[in-house]
Each structure stands twice: as C-alpha cells, then as structure tokens.
Amino acid sequence: SPGVTLTVNEKIEIAKQLSRLGVDVLEAGFPVASQGDFDAVERIATEVGPLMIGREAHGTPMTIAGLARAVPADIKRCFDAISKAPKRRIHTFLATSDIHLQHKLKITREECVARAVAAVSFAKTLVDDVEFSPEDAGRSDQDFLCQVLSAVIEAGATTLNIPDTVGYNMPEEYGAMIKYLIANTKGSNTVIWSAHCHNDLGLATANTLSGIMNGIRQVEVTINGIGERAGNTAMEEIVMAVHTHPDFFPVYHTINTPQFFRISQLVSSLSGMVVQPNKAIVGANAFLHESGIHQDGVLKNKLTYEIISPETVGANTINLVLGKHSGRAAFRSRLQELGFGELTDEEFQIAFNSFKALADSKKRVTEQDLIALLSDQVSQAAGTDKAIFVIKSLQVVSGTSFATATVQLQNSQTGETTVDAAIGKSGPIEAVFSAIQRLVGKKIRLLKFDITAVGEGVDALGQVSVKIAENQGDETPEGEEEGPRSTSKQATYHGHGADSDIIQAASRAYLNAINRLVANENERLHGERQVDV
C-alpha cells in the first residue's frame, strides 16, 4: 500500500494474528526487495510458521509463501527466507499480456513461455509447493494464457493464480475467463486455481466471488482491502459472503470470524490506514442503525435489518470494559483473548502499566483501547535497540496567538539528556515537533498527520499516525510556504502513538518515526563502514 511501512516486529505481530484467524497461506513478503524484507520473511517463517494456536479446524500450521520474479536469483533468495517454515511455498510471476511483453519486458511470447517454465522448474527443485502467476492475466490473450499455464503445470506448478492486476475486468468477464482457462488448460484438474483481484473499479470482491463460482479455490486477499493503488480484495468481505450464503457458493471456509474486528483494528493502527466508517463488515458503522424505521425493526427483531450478527465478526466485544480495579489475572486473560498471550514478562508489565495509567484517567477501558495500546507498544518496540531517542518530559503552553513547548529527550545509547523549547504559530503540535527536530539535529518534512479517537467521550484515547521524510538540500523548512513536490523517491518513515493526551500521542508518533529514520541511517552507515574495511 502506498505510504505504508511496517517494521519486522509489526509484521510478525500481524502474522501471528493471521495465523489465529485461520489463514491457509501467508504471503509474507518479497525477500529479494531488500535486506529488511528478507529478514521479515525469514523471521515470520521461523517464529510464526510453526504456530498452531487457534488452528484446530485446520490441523496444520500456515503455509509461508515468498514472492519472487521469474529470475533464478529471486527464487533462490525467496527459498532462503522461507526455508525454516514447516510448510513453505515459492510464488513466482511473469507478465503475459502483450502490452507488458512489448513495453516492459521487451520479449516475445515464446520467450515468455520459456522463462515461466524455467522459473517454475527451478523453484520445484527447492520446494514441492510452487505457485505461478501470469501478471496482467486480465488483459492477456486467453489462448496464450492456456499455453503458458499448461507449460508451467507440466513443469511442476501446484497453484495457478490468475490476477486482474490493474482491476480492469468486470465480474462476468473475470468469471468467464476462469471458466475458459480451467476448461482449456492441460492438467487443470491437477492444480488449485487462485484469484487475485484489484479494486481500481471497486469490483475486487465481486470479481473474486465470480471466480469462486467458476472454479476458483484459493483467494488472494488482504485485511481491510489494503493494497496497491485502490487496494486488493478484502478478506472479511469474501469470507462473510460465503458465510452468509452457504447454499449459494460451492465452497466453505474455516476462518475464525470473531477475530475479524480485532485484526482489522490492529492492521489499521500499525499501518496508519484508517478504516472508513461505512466499510463493510469491519467499519465503525457496520452495525449501527440511524433510520427510525430500521431502529424500530432491530429492536423488535435484529434479523429485520442485520444479515450478520456483530458477534459473528467480533464487533460485540469491542465495548467490554476493564477498570482501574481490574487485576493482572483479568488483564492477562483479556490479552490472551485478543491474541497477545505470548508477551514476555517484561512486555506484559509494560502493557499492564499502560493499562493502569489509562484506567486512572478513563472510566471505561474497552477492548478498542487495549488494541490501541498494544499496537502502540508493538510500534514503539520496533526493536528496542532502535528506540534511540526517548521523551523524558514534555510541557506545552497554548493560547490564541501561539504555543510554546519544552521537550526533554534522552539518548538511550549515550544516556545524555537534552532540553529545548520552541514556538508554534500553528499551535502546540508544531511547537513540539519543532523542539524535537532541534534536539535530534534533523530537518524533518511532515508528509502525513492523522489523528483518530478510539471510542467516544472527552476521555477517549487518541491515536496518531505520521509519515515523515528528511529534508534534503534546500527544501522548504517545515512551517513555511511550499509548493507541490514529489516524494515518491524519498525514503519515508511511519510513526504511531496512542495516549489519552493527544499532544503526547502526537509526540510519541513523531519520535517513533524519527527513531526509525535515525536507525536506518545508522544501519546504512555501518554497512558502508563494513564495505570500506
């Protein structure tokens, strides 16, 4: 998803929740893309691959898949990353549409077939489970697709994924394509057929369901429908469509649906991508009724206007309350229910202290609050060695004309404590951010600032998500007039913070992003020094 950067720890936490949810195959990343991507996939394969918690209906752990271009070096790198998973898969892809072959790859159809076969054949020497995707299948010649797919089946592919890469197809069109490919591809009955749809025209879910009706038995989906451009097919929408129509669709699912609301919030918190209130299944308004006619019907019988009960997707537990008198046992029990039962003693203590601090200032601590606090803890601990700067104290004075902020930071590596103050013409957030910039010795460009309330009331927990980049050269300093500027080639860093005080939440998010920026610079500098030696 554009603008989303997750740390390894954040990816692992999401992967654990996906395992509990009952996901069959987790495509953990693109190992050749960077060392960070490789490390994330490798750790997910090692730490999450064997997990069986919540997977009783499956009887097996998740398959951990890695993505690779149809290039030997990519495929080998992919295998190295997933090799420690009990169940592993290599997913390789190659474009097949004429527009991609002519303008991107600059190869003939014959060369395309040869490359696809070579990639699958090599992957098959490393793993038994190989998936192949003809990129831009939705705009490819279908007879040529049959030729390519027949060849890769013979080479050893076990899953054929048919992507509508640019979200171009109509539902009837996509379903008809799947039906044609299955009917005209040699060996089609020996593989699993998969759908991968994009939402550029708002049809990703409809296209995927059409595919299911025509022979698709694996669906490639994401939580909340996040993904490239307008996103991918939303997992919760596909599962609940099948769930509510057991006699209509020729398939069933083994997904632990009461986990949907929780993992939706976790992904939203860590990615910084807010779920629209009217989002199907997991939106804040999904089970609210405004119309008087609807309210009257629901009060008399919920089935009048609710085709899915809130309990089915876990929306009913979102307001269950813990208070300041709740003890460790009750808190630990609730964490286990939320899928955070594997915290170390130190991590549990940090979470418990955060809960107690929140309970002192807030009468009702809900499940939403706990997920926000735990998401913040995961984000802040994106490797404790990377939390270089820590806020020791923060004081803000704000008025109608300007605001002032005094910030004290500690460098966790040197132990040095520094203090600075700044004025914000636009308010206290600008003042705090300006002071932090001076203390860390960086000129920072703020690219995104989002704030949302968790729950309702004046004591609601505030969640802040920021995206930053370091100013390069003579770029306009923050706070001054600026024109449009592309940041597509700039390294960007995401930060997350949660607190009942939104100034504190903002400062935590901002410093979280800066710590990632500084840690990345240090790693790059360390790598350069190693090369020099």
Describe the protein's topology.
Elements: H1 8-21, E1 25-29, H2 35-48, E2 63-69, H3 72-82, E3 88-95, H4 98-105, H5 109-124, E4 130-135, H6 142-155, E5 159-164, H7 171-184, E6 192-197, H8 204-213, E7 218-220, H9 235-244, H10 260-271, H11 292-300, H12 328-337, H13 345-361, H14 367-380, E8 389-398, E9 403-411, E10 417-424, H15 428-440, E11 444-454, E12 461-470, E13 493-499, H16 502-532
Parallel strand pairs: 1-2, 2-3, 3-4, 4-5, 5-6, 6-7
Antiparallel strand pairs: 8-9, 9-10, 11-12, 12-13
How far from one another are the termini?
38 Å
Tally of alpha and pi helices: 16
What is the H/E string? Answer: HEHEHEHHEHEHEHEHHHHHHEEEHEEEH
State the strand order across the main sheet.
Answer: 1-2-3-4-5-6-7
Task: Please state the average pLDDT score.
Answer: 88
Q: Report the radius of gyration as a whole number of Å.
A: 25 Å
Give a short account of the largest sheet: 7 strands, parallel
Q: What shape does the CA trace take?
A: globular
Q: Roughly how much helix do the residues carry, as a percent range? A: 40-55%
Low-confidence stretches: 474-488, 528-533
Structural class by secondary-structure content: alpha/beta
Range of strand content: 15-25%
Q: Care to count the β-strands?
A: 13
